[in-house]
Amino acid sequence: MNEALIRLQDIAFGYPGHPVLSGIDFHLHAGERVALLGGNGAGKTTLLQLMVGLHKPTQGTIHAFGRERHSEADFREVRARAGLLFQDADDQLFCPTVLEDVVFGPRNLGKTGTEAEVIGRQVLDSLGLAHYADRITYKLSGGEKRMVALATVLAMQPQVLLMDEPTNGLDEKAEQRLLEHLESLPQAMLFVSHDRRLVERLATRAVVIKDGTLSEGVIHSHPHVHTHSHLHIHASGLDAGHEHDDTVPGHSHPHTND
């Protein structure tokens, strides 16, 4: 397999008197869509933020896009190539209007005003948000802010998408549109989610944080009747509800357990 886009080796992180992560090894390759699972407070958000330099590990090394990363200057380059969707959209949106928020990233990467606006409008249109361009950002609903926050990340045209609960606050129609869009994207993805439908539909593999350590999901097959073939993942912090169509006998599928 080609060199990993992002690779963590023996990463540890904690706050005074409160260890969070210990001995974390992880790799993300081109084309992968990895679900990062675990219970509330397990350290999932912290791990995403470590990857883009918002925290510094107390131990271990971070390689991203072919280089080991240490300094803030190193991570500024990483953040230009790995877009992070925050768990709270209000942490990502700060301009008066939607379009201004969406074009901020491309402008910051050196695009002209015209180039940035073309990119911004194309991204909004691809998400079904073209009519939001002139809306006042702070007046949007939580779900609308969530979609606009994703648009700000995609407008930077990153190689990697890091997403923290991307379907938070979305109604069923918006979630379906988001899923369809994410499935169409070529970027490697690492995403945190408690949304079983998102994980099973989007993930190519899963990793689980538990007690500060990270492990690969254990894939196994067993007889089960259904009419679809995608990951089925059972892990701490993931919604338990799931339904199958029992009309087609004799199929088996992978399950993942922590």
UniProtKB/TrEMBL annotation:
Segments crossing the lipid bilayer: none
Q: Which CDD domains match?
A: ABC_cobalt_CbiO_domain1
Asked whether the keyword Protein biosynthesis is assigned, the reply is no
* Alphabetical UniProt keywords: ATP-binding, Nucleotide-binding, Transport
Question: Where does the ABC transporter domain start and stop, copy by copy?
Answer: 6-236
One GO MF term on file is: ATPase-coupled transmembrane transporter activity
Annotated region (Disordered) at 239-258
Q: Which SMART domains match?
A: AAA (SM00382)
Query: Gene3D superfamilies recorded for this chain?
Result: P-loop containing nucleotide triphosphate hydrolases (3.40.50.300)
Q: Provide the Gene Ontology terms for cellular component.
A: ATP-binding cassette (ABC) transporter complex
InterPro entries listed in its UniProt record:
AAA+_ATPase (IPR003593), ABC_transporter-like_ATP-bd (IPR003439), ABC_transporter-like_CS (IPR017871), ABC_transpr_CbiO/EcfA_su (IPR015856), ECF_ABC_transporter_ATP-bd (IPR050095), P-loop_NTPase (IPR027417)
In the record, the note on similarity to other proteins reads: Belongs to the ABC transporter superfamily.
Protein name in the entry: Cobalt ABC transporter ATP-binding protein
